[in-house]
Structure formats: structure tokens, C-alpha cells
Amino acid sequence: MNNKPYFLKDETDRKHYLAIAELVREKLGRNSDRNKQIIYWKAALLPLLYLTFYIVSIRHLSSPWIVLSCYSLMGIMGVFIFLNLIHEATHGLLFQKRKWNRMYLYVFDLIGLNSYIWIQRHNRLHHNYPNLMGWDGDIEQSGLFQIFPQDEPGSHTRWQHLYIFILYPLYLFSWIFIRDFKDFFQKGRAVRRLFTIPLMEFIKLFFFKAFFIGYMIVLPIILGMPLWLAFLAVFVETVAGSIFALMVLLTPHANTENKFPVLSGGNQLDISWLRYQLITTNDVQLNNWWTRNCMANFNYHVAHHLFPSVSYSQAPELTNIIRAYANEHGLPYRSFTLWGSLYRHYLLVKRNAIQAKEIFAEDL
Fold this sequence. Notes:
Elements: E1 6-7, H1 11-27, H2 33-58, H3 64-90, H4 98-104, H5 106-110, H6 115-126, H7 160-167, H8 171-185, H9 199-222, H10 227-249, E2 268-269, H11 273-280, E3 283-284, H12 289-293, H13 301-306, H14 315-329, E4 335-336, H15 338-363
Parallel strand pairs: 1-2, 3-4
């Protein structure tokens, strides 16, 4: 196992963080009963809606438009479940007891995504080392893309700013059927750096993947769904979910305005943990009923990285504290519009593609 990176110890930044934490304790108590009740209702309602769309599709096997519409809604509902519930359970915030959070994470497995590897990739790697090549398991992608500016470009990456519009909509399809398996079996993946995967998790991986394929493809075919429609439905489901999910996943980290730090000798990062989180993470300028109640306040991402043990229901108030403190003390807090964030991500992909072109031009 590789030794994990460590941050610069900066006493001033440590005091900054402690001061922010003290303001948080003073101004924010536990979630209100109303907020917790809303989250509990979501924990029951959202999976029920997912199941309802599935049942409707099964009852209308002869109607391709109904089947494809329901599968598309299942893909979008899966993203809602992830944002509002799975992410909370991952950080132990959905329920008070840890075992209940762990149990609820099986919902993630049931909708096709491996919960064990997600926890390791997200909690242990991404939250500690966002935008750090070789350590941020959430941003680590296939060799088809060069996201990290310092990564080794391939001959194909010179065109990546063009084919992202074709391949990005396949994001969840790749996650379900390729990425999870690569994290389990491919040496050199970020998630293989800090721990050994237990045998039982390999068994769970194959069991839940088979279960997902069984109820999404095999059972509908047995009940009379045409083969072509069954495969098309799963494809449509993952595309619909991918387009929706990427609006959330692409906006807070991977763009031209955020830094991609590089390790110095001995796995040292020449920056404090506080400033590291601030220079690799941005907020998104959205605050409306939809983002608060349906999108789990995904736009308040800086607050989540600095205080991952605080529920998303308190993210707006927490962000106000962080933003005010950062402005007062000159800390690098940043926030962009949704489309501005997405455009900056495209510019990052294009910039890396241009660099790849220049490298291969020199080789010629």
C-alpha cells in the first residue's frame, strides 16, 4: 500500500479553521425536527417512486414509449436518490445509527452502483485529496480523457473536447458496467492505494450487478419485452441519469479556475488542508426551491468539503458563515454560475486537448 499524502502544517490556517468551526457551533445547532422529517420522507418516497416507474414499465411491455419514458425517469430518480439519500448515508447523516446508514446504502447497490467502492473512493480519497492525480478516485476516469493537466496525454485525447459530447452521456453506463469492476480488479487505481478489498465485497459486487441486470433486462424479456427494447431501455435510463448527474458532478472541482496540486518529494503537499480544499473546490450560484428540496443543496460544495459531517439541509447557513469569514480574512472562497462552471470544465478539457496536440506535433 502507498503512503498517503500529508499536508503542510500551517498554524495560521489551523486557527482559521478552528475559528470557522466555532462560528458553526455557535450559529448552527442540530438539524431541526422538520428538516429531519423531510429527509426521512425522502428516504421512503424516492425509492418508492423508482419502483413505481419500474412496475409501470413492466405492465406496459407492448408500449415502447411508456417503457422508455419510465426507464428514463428511473435514471433521473436514481440521481435524486444518490444526491438526497445515498450521499447523506455515506457520511453517516441519514440516520442516527451507523448500521442503519450502512443498511440504506444497499439501495445504491440495487440501482446498479457498488456502495462499498463508492464509500472508499468518496470518503477516504476524494474528500481528503480532491483534484490530486492518483488519489482523487472520484475524478479518476478512463484513459479516454485527460482531466488532470499533469497527466500523460494519449493520442486520442487531442480530440477529447469534441467527443465528450458523445461519451459523457454514457457516464453512468460506464460506472455501472465498467468503472466499478476496474476499481475492484485493476491495479494502479486510486482505490487500491490505501486498503485491501475484502472477499465478501467481491461477492456482493457480482451479486448486486447480476440482480440489477436481472430485474432491468432479464425479467422484462421473460415477461415479454422485446430484446431490443430491453437493452435500449437500460441505455436510455443510464443516458438520462448521466446528463442529469453530470450537471452536479462536473461543476464543483474539475475546471480551469480550480487548482490541481502536485505532490512534492515524500508525498508532501505544500499547502494546508484548509487552503487545499478552498483552491480545489468551488460553489455554484444557485439557491431556489429545486436545489434545496430536490438537489440536496449540491451547489454548496465548499461547505460540504470543510464540514462533511453537517447535513446538506444546513448547507446554506454554513456557506454564509464560510463566505463571510473568507471575505474578511482573505481566504480563497469562490463561487460560479452553473453554466459558468460547466463552461470552465469544457475549457479545462479543451486546454488539455490542445496540450496533447502540441506534444504530438513535437513528436512529428
